[in-house]
Structure formats: structure tokens, C-alpha cells
């Protein structure tokens, strides 16, 4: 069993002596007692935990038939820390089959269809799903570590271009189209579809997890996120089941994700992530080349 940091004696109080650490992220520490999962606010500088609205999303998805953990309790401790207690999502080591990716597509379609207002990251409330920004451009900036192309900054100063100078010309060629993404129809998106966000059983999806970074933006955001973490063939398969386009707009949004992940990788001093961002940016540029 992992020893809990002294700071998270709150986890012991909520889960009991069987509590053990599962993971830490930008905004939360995650614990389990083997039957339940506790998400406990522990934000890094500049981050915030949005656990109240995460619980609201999960309840809405469960009502729509989407497999996601049952919300057991959500609240605020006397210390001011918010927490979300949910059922433990079960799975096996089989990984996804083709039907599992189709399951994920249908789950994302339900997420994209939830009523929402505003743009960008969500206000942490349980009565409605409202983005913090009034415009889609502002909404993108609330979630992604971006400046260019939304301001007059020097594109050469971007971490992605420092790592992959060959991407400068392709980015400049599509600058107007990148700005045009702010005119796309918007939906509630997951935005962070890496492999730890899913549970599979016999190749089928048993849980879609972690809506703390959910944001209102173009559905192509989720398609590009899938492509970044799982490759374009998987993204196309899931997008088909979700009823989302996986064409030029998804590749354009992929370039924005490349800029974002390169910035994050540099800030976190993760050269492996920087290489991945550059490789993905090149894959997006190839898809945009006639």
C-alpha cells in the first residue's frame, strides 16, 4: 500500500485506513479503497479543480445511458478542499476491440449533445453546464496553453517551433484557417482522451472517466485528442460512431493541440512529450497538404 502524504490525511478521513494513492494530476489527487474512488482537490499553481461540475456531467451521462462511474458524494471539506466520491470503474486488461471504440463514439455523441452555454472550461456548479468565456476563441484559451495564432506574438517563439522548425511554414500557411475554428459549431467536449480515461471489459467500454477538463468547443477537439493519444485510424473510427467529422477541421485542431502539448512539455521539462507533440504536428500538417 502506498503511504499517503501528510497533506492528504483528508483522504484517510473520507476513505478510511484502506485508502491508497492511485494517481496525481494537475488539479486532483486520486485515491481508492478498492471499492470507491476519491478525487480530492490538489491543484497545481494556475490550475483549479472542477469536481462539482464533473459530478453533474457524470449524472447527466448516466441518465443518457453512458457508462461512467456512479456519483456517491460530492462536497467541500472544512479545509475548503472539494472532493468527489464515486464508484470504482471495473475493467480488464483486454483493451478495446472495434466494438469498444464504437462504444466510445456513442458515449462522446451523448456528451456532445448535453445542454450547455458559453464556451471553454466550465464553471464549477451543479445547476447548469456553462463555459467561463463568452466567445469560442476565449474558450479555447481558457483550456489550451496558447497565444499564437490568437494574438500578434511571434510564431518562432512557440515551443513547438523551437522543437520542430519545419512546422513553421505549414502553420503560417493555415493561420487564417486556425483562427476560423472559432466559428465552428460548439458542443461539450471531454478534451483529454488519453488511455487512462477509459475502462474496458472484453473489449467493450465499461467506463468513460474524468471530466475535470471538459470544455465547450468544436467536437473536432475530441477527434484531435483521440488522434494525438491513439492515432488517426482510431480517431476516424470513433468519430464515425460519434457522428463527428474527421477531416480538415480535426487536423487543424490537431495543430492547436500540438502547440498546447509542446508548451506543456517544455514547462514540465518532459522532452519525450515535446517529441510527441512535434510528431503529431507533422502528422496534422501532412493531412492538410493537398
Secondary structure blueprint with pairings:
Layout: H1 9-15, E1 20-24, E2 28-32, E3 36-41, H2 51-63, E4 71-76, E5 82-87, H3 98-112, E6 119-122, E7 131-133, H4 136-143, H5 159-163, H6 168-173, H7 175-180, E8 187-189, E9 198-201, E10 204-208, E11 215-217, H8 220-230, H9 232-242, H10 248-268, H11 271-287
Antiparallel strand pairs: 1-2, 2-3, 3-5, 4-5, 6-7, 6-11, 8-11, 9-10
InterPro entries: AGP_Transferase, Aminoglycoside_PTrfase, Kinase-like_dom_sf
Protein name: Aminoglycoside phosphotransferase domain-containing protein
Q: What would CATH call the class of the largest domain?
A: Alpha Beta
Going across the major beta sheet, what is the strand order?
A: 1-2-3-5-4
The helix content is: 40-55%
- Helix and strand succession? HEEEHEEHEEHHHHEEEEHHHH
From the alpha-carbon coordinates, what is the Rg to the nearest angstrom? 19 Å
Number of domains: 2
Number of strands: 11
Query: In angstroms, what separates the terminal alpha carbons?
Result: 54 Å
Q: What is the overall pLDDT average? A: 94
Largest sheet report: 5 strands, antiparallel
Regions with pLDDT < 50 over 5+ consecutive residues?
A: none
Strand content: 15-25%
Amino acid at each position: 500500500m502506498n503511504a499517503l502524504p501528510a497533506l492528504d490525511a483528508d483522504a484517510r478521513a473520507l476513505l478510511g485506513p484502506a485508502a491508497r494513492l492511485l494517481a496525481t494530476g494537475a488539479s486532483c489527487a486520486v485515491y481508492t479503497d478498492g471499492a470507491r474512488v476519491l478525487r480530492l482537490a490538489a491543484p497545481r499553481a494556475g490550475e483549479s479543480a472542477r469536481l462539482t461540475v464533473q459530478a453533474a456531467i457524470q449524472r447527466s451521462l448516466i441518465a443518457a445511458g453512458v457508462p461512467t462511474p456512479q456519483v456517491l458524494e460530492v462536497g467541500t471539506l472544512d479545509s475548503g478542499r472539494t472532493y468527489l466520491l464515486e464508484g470504482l470503474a471495473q475493467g480488464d486488461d483486454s483493451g478495446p476491440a472495434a466494438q469498444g471504440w464504437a462504444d466510445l463514439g456513442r458515449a462522446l455523441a451523448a456528451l456532445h449533445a448535453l445542454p450547455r452555454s458559453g464556451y471553454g472550461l466550465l464553471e464549477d456548479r451543479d445547476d447548469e453546464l456553462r463555459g467561463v468565456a463568452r466567445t469560442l476563441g476565449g474558450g479555447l484559451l481558457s483550456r489550451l496553453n496558447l497565444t499564437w495564432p490568437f494574438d500578434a506574438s511571434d510564431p518562432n517563439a512557440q515551443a513547438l517551433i523551437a522543437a520542430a522548425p519545419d512546422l513553421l511554414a505549414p502553420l503560417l500557411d493555415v493561420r487564417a484557417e486556425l483562427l476560423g475554428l472559432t466559428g465552428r459549431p460548439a458542443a461539450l467536449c471531454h478534451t483529454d482522451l488519453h488511455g487512462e480515461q477509459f475502462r474496458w471489459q472484453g473489449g467493450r467500454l465499461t467506463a468513460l472517466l474524468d471530466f475535470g477538463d471538459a470544455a465547450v468547443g468544436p467536437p473536432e477537439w475530441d477527434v484531435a485528442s483521440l488522434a494525438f493519444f491513439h492515432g488517426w485510424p482510431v480517431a476516424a473510427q470513433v468519430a464515425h460512431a460519434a457522428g463527428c467529422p474527421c477531416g480538415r477541421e480535426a487536423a487543424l485542431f490537431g495543430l492547436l493541440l500540438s502547440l498546447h502539448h509542446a508548451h506543456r512539455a517544455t514547462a514540465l521539462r518532459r522532452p519525450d512529450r515535446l517529441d510527441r507533440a512535434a510528431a503529431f504536428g507533422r502528422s496534422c500538417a501532412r493531412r492538410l497538404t493537398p
